[in-house]
Amino acid sequence: MSGFKALRIDKIASGQTIAKVDFDEAELMDGDVTVRVTHSTVNYKDGLAITGRAPVVRRFPMIPGIDFAGVVESSGDPTFKPGEKVLLNGWGIGETHLGAYAQKARVRGEWLVPLPDAYTPAQAMAIGTAGYTAMLCLMAIERFGLTPADGPAVVTGAAGGVGSIAVAIMAKAGWHVVASTGRPNETTFLSGLGAAQILDRAVLSTPGKPLGKETYAAAIDSVGSVTLANVLAQMKPLGAVAACGLAQGMDLPTSVAPFILRGVSLIGINSVTASRARRMEAWGRLARDLDPRTLASLTTTIGFDDIVPTAEAILNGKIRGRVVVEIG
Fold it and tell me: Considering the entire predicted model, what is its pTM?
């Protein structure tokens, strides 16, 4: 098909508009691999792009969506052949390069990863950038040399996309996981993922002292701002925090105290442009360590027409776990 449906964002004087449109393959951007997109997902970043609440989109018009899974239709990259199942996370799609909320995408082959045999395209998008980022965080903590024997780990934003998978994979790896959330009704859900303790997010989300009680050996933070500052203040000596999000804000109102008095390390996680080797490692770990039954328990599936309202809901904290979009 040369024509296909897509979700398109256009710039207007008062901000932006978004609508489902008929798109032509000739309008796709340069790339050496064309993919028939079968599934995508809705991440927090997608919510920001679709609503315009943050300047995620830097080229107009834009097809949003930072993740997709699908089937190669044509390829000028010898790594991929027509009919092969692939996935893509990041690399600026949905921001500067036409993205995933369309039935077709044309991208650079170096951005693609073969779909792991352990997962269907829908399951891969149930993981998506959020779950892949969570695994990058765990891998970073492990490279730092920390193990479950060093003490408990805290996961902030635990009921969200990154947080829910972070809880599951850290628990599987043997960590005593403390799940921080503002949704007390999700206690059963988080315990089912492996959380050993539920922490009211108010404990971390309001301003605290430069140094608190030595509590956590490791942390995965997708919230930022005051929450991240409080996590840093409560780390054990030589602990490490993997930071990957900014749901509360981009600021970091902290001091040097945790770093110079306890030797705490803050590890930044960039999932957008990670090397293919690092991506393959992360997806291999997910295939091994994330039980498909656990993945199913935290996943909701929606249709193409549900993308926009879901984007609003995810920013308002109304979405639990992960969302798969059937592009159709």
Answer: 0.93
Beta-carbon contacts of residue 302 (< 8 Å; ≥ 6 apart) = 42, 310, 323, 324, 325, 326
Let me know if 81 is exposed, middle or buried by CB neighbors in 10 A (0-12, 13-18, 19+): exposed
In the chain, which stretches have pLDDT less than 70? 1
pLDDT 10s digits, 281-307: 999 999 999 999 999 999 999 999 999
CA distances 223 to 42, 156, 216, 243, Å, are 17, 7, 17, 8
CATH 3.40.50.720 domain position(s) in the chain: 128-268
Check if the beta carbon of residue 158 is closer than 8 Å to that of residue 190. Answer: yes
Closest CA to 128 of 213, 68, 49: 68
Residue range(s) occupied by CATH 3.90.180.10 in the chain: 3-115+298-326
The Cα–Cα gap between 318 and 310 comes to: 9
Distance between CA 288 and CA 286 in Å, rounded? 5
> Beta strand pairing status for 85-89 and 67-75?
antiparallel
Q: DSSP per residue over 233-265, as a string?
A: HTEEEEEEEEE---SSBS-----SHHHHHS--E
CATH match of 128-268 with 3.40.50.720:
yes
Contact 98, 29 (CB under 8 A): yes
Which architecture characterizes domain 3-115+298-326 according to CATH?
Alpha-Beta Complex (3.90)
Look at residue 143 and give its three-state secondary structure.
Answer: helix
For residue range 243-254, what is the model confidence (pLDDT) as tens digits? 999 999 999 999
Both tokens of residue 212? 């608190």
Predicted confidence at residue 36, as pLDDT, reads 97
